[in-house]
Amino acid sequence: MTTQESLVTLTVDRHVALVTLNRPGARNALSTPMITELRRVLKVVDEDEGVSAVVLTGADPAFCAGVDLSELSAPNYGQGHDMSSFAVRQSDPWLDLTKPIIGAINGFAVTGGLEVALHCDLLIASEKARFADLHAKFGMLPTWGMSVLLPNAVGGAFARRMSLSGQFVDAETALRIGLVTQVTEHGKLIPTALAVARDIGESSQPAVRATLANYRRLQHQPLTTGREIEAESAREFRESDFDPEEIKRRRETLRRGERG
């Protein structure tokens, strides 16, 4: 079964759902409609008893460049804007799912895109994958759990290095620090991720879901306070230091730098 949407594509084959972020011209930046569509699609596959696991990827050349900065830098951003459109519980890009999500990172996973990756249950990377937290570079704070999930994945010191410097991490470094579980040739990324998903599908599905729920409870229970602190810090920052014009200026500066 295959369905085609303007912002997200969904293909289900042999009990595995392949979900693809589909704004390649914008490096799959997360606009409000795209987030809404992603949540809808993931809810559909989570409720489909014929699906055992989900592979989440992006249309080449990127996995996800994060939240669409053209929305964040709008002059009226934060004035009557429903922040819940960008977060469920201010710390999740999607509602709780019962099935495992494998992130197939095919290119840049940056800022909010890195947070999306961190919410997956495991990551497999193409040799072209690159990871970065650019919140501070753009004059923003995370609200999807970056400050909790990133140190949990790579350790506190490396997480601070990534978040404070905005330095990019290549695929091999991501493997070394434990951010991803495997690096493959770019053309083999999706087949590799689908193979892992099908291995999961061969296990007892009640046991898979119970085990996954147990892992998530054990992971998230001690992180609840950290997420609350992050949400409060982001709220205070928006009320005192948040400057949409600064985001716009920094965005243009970084674009000029990319163009050389």
Characterization of the model:
The structure is a single chain. By secondary structure, the protein is of the alpha/beta class. It has one domain: Alpha-Beta Complex (2-enoyl-CoA Hydratase, Chain A, domain 1), CATH 3.90.226.10. It is 46% helix and 17% strand. The strands form two sheets. It has a seven-stranded mixed β-sheet with strand order 1-2-3-4-6-8-11, with helices on both faces. The protein has a four-stranded mixed β-sheet with strand order 5-7-9-10. The longest helix has 17 residues. The radius of gyration is 18 Å and the shape is globular.
Work out the radius of gyration: 18 Å
Task: Tell me about the largest β-sheet.
Answer: 7 strands, mixed
Q: Just name the CATH architecture.
A: Alpha-Beta Complex
Mean pLDDT: 86
CATH superfamily grouping: 2-enoyl-CoA Hydratase, Chain A, domain 1
CATH uppermost class: Alpha Beta
**Spans of at least 5 consecutive residues with low confidence:** 74-90
Query: What is the count of β-strands?
Result: 11
Distance between the termini: 44 Å
How do the SSEs run, as a string of H and E? EEEHEEHEEHEEHHHEHEHHHH
Sheet with most strands: strand arrangement: 1-2-3-4-6-8-11
Give the CA-based shape: globular
**Named CATH topology:** 2-enoyl-CoA Hydratase, Chain A, domain 1
Q: What amount of the residues lies in strands?
A: 15-25%
